[in-house]
Every structure is written in C-alpha cells, then in structure tokens.
Amino acid sequence: MSAVTFSQITKRYKDGPKAVDALDLDIADGEFMVLVGPSGCGKSTALRMLAGLEEITGGELSIDEQVVNDLPPGDRDIAMVFQNYALYPHMTVRRNMAFGLLRRRAHGGLAGILFHGAERRAELDAIDRKVLDTARTLGIEGLLERLPRALSGGQRQRVALGRALVRDPQVFLFDEPLSNLDARLRIEMRAEIRELHRRTKASMVYVTHDQEEAMTLADRMVVMKFGVVQQFGTPAECYGRPANRFVAGFVGTPVMNFVDGRVEGGTFISTDLRLPLATARWPHMPSGAATLGIRPDQLRVEPGTATGNAVPAVIRAVERLGDRTDVVLAVGSARLTARVENDERLAEGGPAGVRIALEAAHLFAPGEDGVRLPDALDGR
Q1: What's the predicted TM-score (pTM) here?
Q2: What domain range is 320 assigned to?
Q3: Residue 43: phi, psi to the nearest 5?
Q4: Which of 166, 181, 275, 378 is 20 to 30 A from 131 in CA distance terms?
C-alpha cells in the first residue's frame, strides 16, 4: 500500500490536443480515489499512465515517493482490473488467479517452479493456498476448475478482482470494471469492492463515467473534462458545493436544473420568473447575468392551480419510480425536473404549483462552465 502523486502530469498524442493537461493529484496511502467524467475526458489515460501502459509526455509520477515515469509496468507493483476482465480463455479460474504470482516468481529466478524441487513445491502450495483463500473471500471457490467461457459476467469480474487481490500490490487500479454488468450486478459488485477496500486498506484508483458509482465508492473524487480537473474533493463536496456548472450538472441524478437570467436588487429574473434570493445566503450579490441552479429534490410540486408564493407550471411528464416520482415541468419557457414523493394526483398535462427552495439553490457565472458564485456558506 502506497501513496501516489501526479505532479503536472501531461499526455499529448501526436498532432492532437492534450488528453491530460497538467494533472496535479495526491492520493493518500490507503485512499479510494475515483476519476470520473464523460467519455474522452482523460480519466482512463491518467490511469494508464499510472499503470505504465501509456507514455507520460510531461510531469512526474511517483508511487511510494519513487518516480516511476520510466519504470516498466511489471516493476511498478500495481494490479489492474480491466473493463473486459482480460482473463486467459484457455486457463481455469485457478490458473488465471495464480498466473501473476507464478510469473513474478519465474522472473525472480524460479523459472522451473512448475517442474521440480521441494522448495519450489512449497512455493506452489503457498500460491494455491492464497488463491483458495481469495476465492473464498469472493465466493468463487466452487468455480476454480472452470474456464472463463463457463462463467457469467459477474463471476468473471470476481475472478478478475481475485487475480488482482492475490498479488498484494502497492496500488489497485480499476478501469471501468463494472460497465459490462447489468444494473443489479453493478450494485452488488460496488458493495463488494468497497468491502474489499475496507478489509485490505489498500490504495485504490478507480475510473468510471458513472457519477453514481463514483459517489458511492470514493473517499475523494476527481471530476474531469477535456483532460482538465474541474473539481477534486469528497463526494459530498462535489455534490453540495460544485465548483462550476459542469460539475453541478454532471454530479447528481436527476441532473441539476439550470435557468439562465440575471440578478437585480437581490432578485433573480429570467424571462418568466422573478425569484427573491435568500438574503442570508447572498447578502451582497452584485447585479448582472447569472444562472440559477437547483436540485430536483429541492422543488415541491402541488397539483392544481398555484397558490401563495408557488410558481405556476404545467406538468409535461410524470415518471413513477416506485418509491418516488420524477416530474418534468414547464415553468414559463423554463423546463424543470422535480423529484418528489408519490402523488397520484400528478397528471401529465395538468396544472401545478412549484415551490423552489432558494436557500438550497446555487448561482453560477454565465456560460456552460460558469463558476459557482460565492455565497455565505463558503468557508464553513
């Protein structure tokens, strides 16, 4: 187990833009770090540079305070779990899990380990015990003599995890390992990976495009876009205090609602809305263009004609999800999504009143990547 440091790490492909641009990142010993972002954001490239599978264009990469820029992958003492499992199809589960250990010992001068010698026999027995112990931990001890083609997707992923786990590496790397599994299996495997981390206390670096996966697994997470870090913090920080509009829209399900407008005299104004801002939250907000952001669970929807300070709306769509309901609303020219408790009175095409919890809202500078404007909660 070891700390990992990215210092101004850059990757540029020939005649192309930077895939990763001056990445600075400190991953503590035993930390579960998740790199998250849309396809093409540079997260997998950063992971592959850490693994030694991609050449580093610039900067310095260290594991346990040792610079590894030019160190071959096999000498970095890392273990990687791939999206496609990368199991050897002609080997049994037992041999797949043992392969890395056998190969390591062969490279260490025990090339004949499989063939003769009492000491070598003891080495093999130790490897087999480790494979069996790990298989029991993952619940796959009954699959050890099967070939990969006889396994389900979830079983193959457990074998891939086991192959990494038996090696006791300094750092575990995961490259979208759950993306080929169905929704139920993804949830089960997330729980297993998190439990493995708690039990092993190993350093883990995990790449995913699924922000929900990132939120549930990470001690801290890195949100990336176009090779640049947008925010680095705990899941709660990225969700509750997003650095900019991109992070606010990427983290959270359903996505945050955004309404473009302007602030004038403590009031947010758009084409069809006039919303008095919470003065305790924004006591000195200057006038000017801004975007209001509000989470779907901070909207309250009342069926029927709007009353009191509720904003008039028309229900465009109702998605009933069992324990909750997502409601798509037309509020003038704005389109908002609310996540509410089940209410059979909510009907598509019908009128509604919407109450917006402005004390929980955010204001962003204009533009697709506008930064979150400071408020009274900053620094708490």
Answers
A1: 0.88
A2: 254-364
A3: -65, -45
A4: 181
